[in-house]
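Researcher: Last one for today. Full complex below.
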Amino acid sequence: MSNIIRHEPHKILCHAVEYGGLVFLAGTVPEDMTQDVKGQTKQVVDEIDRLLAKAGSHKSKILSATIWMADIRDRAQMNEVWSAWVDPQQLPVRACVESKMADARCLVEIMVTAAK
Amino acid sequence: MSNIIRHEPHKILCHAVEYGGLVFLAGTVPEDMTQDVKGQTKQVVDEIDRLLAKAGSHKSKILSATIWMADIRDRAQMNEVWSAWVDPQQLPVRACVESKMADARCLVEIMVTAAK
Amino acid sequence: MSNIIRHEPHKILCHAVEYGGLVFLAGTVPEDMTQDVKGQTKQVVDEIDRLLAKAGSHKSKILSATIWMADIRDRAQMNEVWSAWVDPQQLPVRACVESKMADARCLVEIMVTAAK
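Model: Here's the assembly. Have a good evening.
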């Protein structure tokens, strides 16, 4: 059995976990929540890039993504940033739904599972 | 390491992704959202059947499902269709919660992970 | 390919499924929903401990958790119980969002994926 490798523990969670050829990322939120939904989404995907690199993966290897939005009506704007970011030849499965998040200023949170 | 096989890319996502013995499906929504919750759920599970077959899997191999409903009070009706559909000898784990979805007429969305 | 092992089937779902070195748990809810959020969270993590043990895993091997709360403002209280429970050297990735759940008295539901 492969080992579990945990990255960037922070109080209550890790930001990335590797196991068995898979990389799990935590629900990633923007650092600067004063930005609009496009700005926040850009921050989130930049952070996903950073964490995937750290775990030996890449956006082209994302298998599945779950996106939570504070207001689902912002989906088109989030999708503009998503579409510019994802590898168009290597699209993951995805669900996108509305839920309130821990910080009321947070407009988008993305959780991904990737291959190594 | 096994390859990633991606099925039915559509603009921003794929509808199914295979990797390492696992099959990931996108959050599957009904095509005809004018139907009631039972009709919509039937459409969703039919589509899941179709996608699993395409990826070399089957409903009897579903490991985990996440179900989002526009109104959690519709859960009993959704469960009628779910119960008639799932393999009673091969039940997956499952969570079912309420969230608004991209299309306000969408009453149910289901995301599954299956074994090959 | 490894076998799928399913634990505690109950009408519409199983409470745990093992496959390929992974353990999937259903969205676990408290049994006594008259308790406050801390009491409910304690029940949920106790139940997760029980199910992981049954599937040959352990909280130190949790890879990923998704937490749904009826009221995200209860997050700090839930986190007190979470923090006391998780292995601080083996923290999983995690997302925590607000969604209504099947029973209106249910304040917290947790779904985890673990390694064997």
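The two ends of chain A are 16 Å apart (CA to CA). The mean pLDDT of chain A is 97.
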